[in-house]
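Consider a concrete sample entry:
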Amino acid sequence: MIVAAAWADHEISNEETNSLKDLLFRLPELTGHEWAMLEMYIESPIGEEERERLVDQLKGQLRSSADKALAKQALEELVSADGVVTDEERVVVDAIKAEIDSVSVGVFGQLGRLVSGSVSRRDQALRGAPNREQHFEDFIKNKVYYGLQVRMEGGSGKAVSLDIPDADLRLLALTGGLMARVAHVDLEVTEEEIAAMVKALEDGWNLRSDQAAFVVEVAVSEIGPDMDYYRLSREFFENTDEEQRAEFLKVLFAVSDAHGGVSNEEIEEIRTIATALRLPHKTFIDAKLTIPKERRSS
């Protein structure tokens, strides 16, 4: 609920993120699993329907006046962290506080919440309110696929459709993720590299330009230079044959070459991916030689 309020103006500042972490560290027994789930809400905007679902869940957890005071205090501390509370944030915060104050914490209030909570959950299920927790395993295992799912469901604005079977979508996400991983090696993803990734998806997956650009945008935003690509590589290996993996190495070199040639760091990154994909060294060399000598580091 706190993160949802921070997203009320469609962005979360660094100060708000740090304040959120400070608040969470005060909470006892917060597990790594719980923190990872919270990260799902921190990483992308939360819309009105999803925010309402979170508020309803919070109301069902309030057991005392102290609980209510803690929730309101934490909310105020977070939205004030960057020194600016926008009009949109204030409206949302005041509305959430009113919802919190409306909760009865007596015995009959708890009984009422027991009944209304079941009704509310059923109502939310029928209305299909966004619930990214359904994709938690994908958030952990395949960040690009998770990002595609959230965006296609309208979790960050207008819903987007790719009309691709789920198994193919997962492989497409892995493809985009590994390309983005190579593009991120020099800590900057250039327009030329983005264009090369878009072209690779258009040619290899028969995607329209707008569809390919959508996948690349998600991949670049979800995959960073510190991303552990072991799981991406393993999943890609398990869903492709050796010929497909060999051709994909050539794609990775083409992406690296898009911005002034292939650096030694990019070559080594692709070599690491080739090893993770269990490709012979000769296959790696053959892919490297598709780039003219003058355009790659020695």
In short: The longest helix spans residues 107-127. The mean pLDDT is 81. The chain has two domains: 2-130, 138-295.
